[in-house]
Structure formats: structure tokens, C-alpha cells
Amino acid sequence: MRTMKIGIIGAGMVGGTLAHLLVPLGHEVAVSNSRGPASLEGMVAEIGHGAQAMTVNDAAEWADLVVLAVPWRTPEALPPASSVAGKIVVDAMNPYRAWGGTYDLGDSSSSEETRTRLPGARLVKAFNTIYFRHLATEGNTSLPEAERRAIFVAGDDAEAKAEVAGLIRDLGFAAVDAGTLRDGVKLQPGAPVYNQQLTGAEARKQLAGG
Ligand SMILES: NC(=O)c1ccc[n+]([C@@H]2O[C@H](COP(=O)([O-])OP(=O)(O)OC[C@H]3O[C@@H](n4cnc5c(N)ncnc54)[C@H](OP(=O)(O)O)[C@@H]3O)[C@@H](O)[C@H]2O)c1
């Protein structure tokens, strides 16, 4: 496993959970939020060596790989496009409106919209279909992949997708390829696989229409 510097934008339920899981795997993690690094001192202390808090911009600049775990509806929460250009960027966001329901994006997927916001990023949609408490507890590296809980990846950059799939497997989940960034609509809220507790084998079957 290649250890990386991982910048997490949004240190709430999903971002905080990923930070707690990735440091024990040997990665260095920088967490960031809207309130600034001082507000994340407790989280960083709890995670221990390998975790630090930064501003959004600094975390994105510092990282090899960036995770977006902020509300999709607030593009101002994203780091500057220049800070993530050429980097693998994991989009864990879902296009929920502030007061319930989701945005109608026509033919587009929410991650394609994210790519428009961050041109040059090597975008991979992942971690968006799994409830954060399940992410914290359901990884199990001792199981064969077909029996592990599925986490999906979608994207147009095969190498970036493979790197993120590797992270997912290292966390003890099955990495299930859902196709292109456009195919990411199959992973959005309301889709059959969204928030379902599927094994890798079940998830592949479900995506294939069975
Ligand atoms: N909750 C889940 O189980 C789950 C599962 C899969 C995917 N998701 C998706 O993951 C994303 C994050 O969800 P969450 O449940 O983790 O939300 P959350 O607990 O509310 O955390 C959101 C994080 O985003 C930060 N943030 C908000 N506005 C910001 C801004 N303008 N600049 C910088 N940071 C900002 C918040 O920082 P402050 O606290 O400082 O404002 C907070 O750290 C959403 O798109 C959601 O749809 C959630």
C-alpha cells in the first residue's frame, strides 16, 4: 500500500470518520472545515500522530489526494481549483438541498458538476452511498471482497479510480466500479444502491440490473 498525504475538506460525520480510519492505515491526514484549524484540535488530538488540522486551502495544497466531504450545495466550501489541479479528488458529496430533497441536474451527475467547479482535478465519486456510522464499523479486511460491504467508485480517470479502489479495499470494503462520472447518477440519493447494505457480489449484480 502506498501511503499518502490525504487532505479532507469537511471534517464532519463523513470527513471525520475517514480521518479516523485512514491514519491507522499509515496515511498522513489533514482535516479542514469552515471554522478553521483551532476548532479541530480535539479531533486531531483524538486521532493522534499522523493527523493535523489546516485551513481548507492549505489542506488541499499540501495533499496528494483530496476528499470532498462538505455539503454539495455550497461550492464556496470547496478548495480553489488550482490547489487540486492534477490531483485525485474523491467526491463523497450528495446533491441534497438545504431543506430536504435533491437538486434536479437533468442529464448531469452531481460529480460532473463538481468537476466543472474543479477543472483539472482527477475526480472519483466514492463513499457517498454509505452512512457514516457504517463506514466507521463495517470494514472487515479478513473477509473476501465478494462478502465485504460494498463501496462504489465512479470516474473517468481509470488510474485515479484504481487508487481510490485500493484505499477502499485497505479499509476492509469491496470496491465496486459503477462506471464513469456520468454513471455516478446510479449512486445518487434515490438510486437502488443508495444507502443499501450490499456485499460486493450483491452490489455488482444490482448494478448489472439483477
Ligand atoms: N452523513 C452521512 O452519513 C453521509 C454519507 C455519505 C455522504 N455524505 C455526504 O458527505 C458530505 C458531508 O456530509 P456530513 O454528513 O459529513 O456533513 P457534516 O457532518 O454536516 O459536515 C460538513 C462539514 O463541511 C464543513 N463545511 C460546511 N461548509 C463549509 C464551508 N463553507 N467551508 C469549509 N467547510 C465547510 C463543515 O465545517 P463546519 O462544521 O466548520 O461548518 C463540516 O466539517 C455531504 O455532501 C453529504 O451528502 C454524508
State the domain count.
1
Proportion of strand residues: 15-25%
Uncertain runs are none
In whole angstroms, the N-to-C terminal distance is 33 Å
Total helices: the number is 8
Rg on CA atoms, Å = 16 Å
| CATH topology assignment | Rossmann fold
- Helical proportion, percent range: 25-40%
Computed structural class: alpha/beta
Mean pLDDT: 97
Give a count of the beta strands, DSSP E runs of length 2 or more.
Answer: 8
CATH class: Alpha Beta
CATH architecture: 3-Layer(aba) Sandwich
Lateral strand order in the biggest sheet? 3-2-1-4-5-6-7-8
Q: State the CATH superfamily name.
A: NAD(P)-binding Rossmann-like Domain
Describe the global form: globular
The small molecules bound here are: NADP nicotinamide-adenine-dinucleotide phosphate
Question: How is the biggest beta sheet arranged?
Answer: 8 strands, mixed
Helix-strand pattern, N to C? EHEHEHEHEHEHEHEH
Account of the 3D structure:
The protein has helices at residues 13-22, 41-47, 56-62, 81-84, 110-117, 132-137, 158-170, 200-207; strands spanning 5-9, 28-32, 51-53, 65-68, 88-91, 122-126, 150-155, 174-179. The chain is built from eight helices and eight strands; from the N terminus they run βαβαβαβαβαβαβαβα. The chain has one domain (5-207): Rossmann fold (3-Layer(aba) Sandwich). With 210 residues, it is an alpha/beta fold. The mean pLDDT is 97. The structure holds NADP nicotinamide-adenine-dinucleotide phosphate (NAP). NADP nicotinamide-adenine-dinucleotide phosphate (NAP) is lined by residues 10-15, 33-35, 56, 69-72, 74, 76-77, 92-94, 96, 128, 131-132.
